[in-house]
Amino acid sequence: MSPILVTGATGRLGQLIVERLLAQQRPVRVLTRRPDTARKLFGAAVEVASGAFADRRSLETALRGIATVLLLSPIGERLVSDQTAVVDAALAAGVRRIVKISGSDWTIEPPGRSISGDAHAAVERHLGRLPLEHVSLRPNAWMQVSLANTLRQVLAGGPVTAVNLDAGVGYIDARDIADVAVHLLLADRIAGGPLNLTGPAAKTPRQIADLLATALGRQVEAVEHQPPPLLPGAGFEQRAVAQFATLIAAGHAAVATDVVRSLLARPPRSVEAFLSDQLSAEAVLAPTADIAP
Ligand SMILES: NC(=O)c1ccc[n+]([C@@H]2O[C@H](COP(=O)([O-])OP(=O)(O)OC[C@H]3O[C@@H](n4cnc5c(N)ncnc54)[C@H](OP(=O)(O)O)[C@@H]3O)[C@@H](O)[C@H]2O)c1
């Protein structure tokens, strides 16, 4: 069985994907600029290919003997060139399937409203022109990023803040994205079109404040908050995040699809379940924190 190459394996989502592949006894190779970090995370269970997207020779070495690739790279100026480099090297190496982690659907369609979405769209188009089996996953905002930040703010005594308290988001649990990615990496066949992955229902910041108030047994305020204007010279990621906030405030992320359920034959994890998991973990950790010097 040839290993599956996972790029972005040491990151937030990549780790979840590698863990799941290993749990299914699948051989995994990870591409990383930080082999020591990969070893700490995964031990001897994975092959570590030391390299970087811009280093063609390291890509060629990492892709030797690989049939399937999970393609993930961070938001940034280099997203298109980095991901295109992996795709082209994969094609040359005889890879048969690429599962790409793309941007949220509402950042990609319609074109021209998000620099990050447009970058992902360019890679999707490139993949579409090549004789390679591929699928692009377009996850909505991840609970582990946006909601985890909200939860931290509330546990520190602050309110839930948002540009528009009534604009919902179809948050998805990153564990569901990883489950879908692994399903598609291992499936006998995959359908071609991009997949819009969401949680079971869109939730507004006001509803999240109410859920937290119930869970914590105290009042949790929801407060409208305009982000500070972007400074001249703001980087790609800062500009992309500012655009996300504007699109979310306009209601574009308030989408719920049945894609996770139809692929995995179970419903996606809910915001309620995510918050409950996080609060239970906090409760377990709290006594240790109290006795820490
Ligand atoms: N957060 C959301 O709500 C959301 C929603 C939709 C889509 N997305 C997409 O998810 C992706 C980000 O995923 P994430 O948060 O899991 O990423 P992350 O935690 O930022 O991890 C980035 C990964 O990329 C690797 N990497 C970075 N530069 C590299 C290079 N030059 N060569 C080789 N590897 C490199 C890093 O590996 P090493 O440091 O070990 O080399 C690391 O494993 C983005 O494409 C974003 O558009 C996110």
UniProtKB/TrEMBL annotation:
<dbReference type="InterPro" id="IPR008030">
    <property type="entry name" value="NmrA-like"/>
</dbReference>
<feature type="domain" description="NmrA-like">
    <location>
        <begin position="3"/>
        <end position="99"/>
    </location>
</feature>
<dbReference type="InterPro" id="IPR036291">
    <property type="entry name" value="NAD(P)-bd_dom_sf"/>
</dbReference>
<dbReference type="Pfam" id="PF05368">
    <property type="entry name" value="NmrA"/>
</dbReference>
<protein>
    <submittedName>
        <fullName>NmrA family NAD(P)-binding protein</fullName>
    </submittedName>
</protein>
<dbReference type="InterPro" id="IPR051604">
    <property type="entry name" value="Ergot_Alk_Oxidoreductase"/>
</dbReference>
